[in-house]
Design goal:
Largest sheet: none
Order of helices and strands: HH
Number of helices: 2
Distance between the termini: 67 Å
Number of strands: 0
Protein name: Na(+)-translocating NADH-quinone reductase subunit E
InterPro entries: NqrM (IPR007495)
Number of domains: 1
Radius of gyration: 24 Å
Helix content: 55-70%
Pfam families: NqrM (PF04400)
Length: 74
């Protein structure tokens, strides 16, 4: 049990030190490699066109947008 408490205390101290460093530097957290955009990939899949589920979702979003613009009060 003593080893567990020591290990837990060490991990807690490291997390607190990282949190304090983050607070004082006031920098946003960012990935180490910059994401897929750095290697020229604009989307997660390389499909030439969206799948059926994505097409349905896009049609639904477009219909909602059209309805909102058609029924706009102001």
């Amino acid at each position: 049990m003593q080893i567990f408490l020591i290990t837990f205390g060490v991990f807690l101290a490291v997390v607190m030190a990282m949190a304090i460093g983050y607070i004082f530097q006031k920098k946003t957290i960012s990935g180490s490699c910059g994401g897929l955009g750095t290697i020229g990939i604009e989307k997660e899949c390389d499909c030439p066109e969206p799948c059926d589920n994505r097409k349905k979702k896009m049609a639904k979003e477009e219909a909602r947008r059209k309805m909102l613009t058609d029924n706009r009060i102001i």
